[in-house]
């Protein structure tokens, strides 16, 4: 199986957002990864509903929306209405995680959980069978272009074992510092989806870079 490739629009040229999205439409990317940051859960602010709706108007591929925000449960329905097909919330931001997962699924979107680098995958034990995706942060969330955290390989293995033990169908997504060098080992350890931002959009040929990542398996 070839990996799911989800370029992170956060690293795109916002002044030419339509053309960037159209480029991704023509690429071998599977999803468009959308990072929503509120300046509270993470020390940065990205964009909100108007930009997401603008992306959705031009996108021909599913929008994988990663909510790096506090109280995500207040906005789930709005993100779904704005075009999100996958909605991932941070375990660290949810007081009632199971309820929030059910809220996402009730909208018809796929439900994901994101984990910060310091958060153990064992905390997912009671909900792993209920989710469609687990996004492991391989950098500290909030900014693009950070260095990959090597401990991520161990976490993928632990998460894969948990998914198998609980008979879950959750996909494993890796977000942060993904590149041509670490992609093969990430997939070998059990990753299903790779998020790549700066590595794609700062490359000389984003279409070829995406194709190279897609053909790692």
TrEMBL record:
Q: Which NCBIfam families match?
A: PRK05581.1-4, rpe
The name this protein goes by in its record: Ribulose-phosphate 3-epimerase
Q: Which PANTHER family match?
A: RIBULOSE-5-PHOSPHATE-3-EPIMERASE
Domain of life assignment: Bacteria
Give the family per the record. Answer: Belongs to the ribulose-phosphate 3-epimerase family.
Query: What is the documented function of this protein?
Result: Catalyzes the reversible epimerization of D-ribulose 5-phosphate to D-xylulose 5-phosphate.
Q: What is the lineage of its organism?
A: Bacteria, Pseudomonadati, Bacteroidota, Cytophagia, Cytophagales
List the InterPro entries hit by this protein, alphabetically: Aldolase_TIM (IPR013785), Ribul_P_3_epim (IPR026019), Ribul_P_3_epim-like (IPR000056), RibuloseP-bd_barrel (IPR011060)
This chain is encoded by the gene named rpe
Q: Which UniProt keywords apply?
A: Carbohydrate metabolism, Isomerase, Metal-binding
């Amino acid at each position: 199986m070839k990996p799911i490739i989800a370029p992170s629009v956060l690293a795109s040229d916002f002044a030419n957002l339509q053309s960037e999205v159209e480029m991704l439409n023509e690429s071998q990317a599977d999803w468009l990864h959308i990072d929503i940051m509120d300046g509270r859960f993470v020390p940065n602010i990205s964009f909100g509903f108007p930009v997401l709706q603008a992306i959705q108007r031009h996108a021909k591929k599913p929008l994988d929306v990663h909510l790096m925000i506090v109280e995500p449960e207040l906005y789930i329905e709005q993100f779904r209405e704005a075009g999100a097909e996958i909605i991932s919330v941070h375990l660290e931001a949810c007081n009632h995680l199971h309820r929030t997962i059910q809220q996402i699924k009730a909208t018809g979107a796929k439900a994901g959980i994101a984990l910060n680098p310091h958060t153990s995958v064992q905390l997912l034990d009671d909900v792993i069978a209920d989710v469609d995706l687990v996004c492991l942060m391989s950098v500290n969330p909030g900014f693009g272009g950070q260095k990959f955290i090597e401990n991520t390989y161990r976490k993928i293995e632990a998460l894969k074992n948990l998914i198998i033990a609980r008979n879950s169908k959750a996909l494993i997504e890796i977000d942060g510092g993904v590149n041509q060098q670490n992609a093969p080992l990430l997939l070998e350890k059990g990753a299903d989806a790779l998020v790549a931002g700066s590595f794609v959009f700062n490359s000389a040929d984003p279409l070829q870079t995406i194709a190279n990542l897609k053909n790692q398996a």
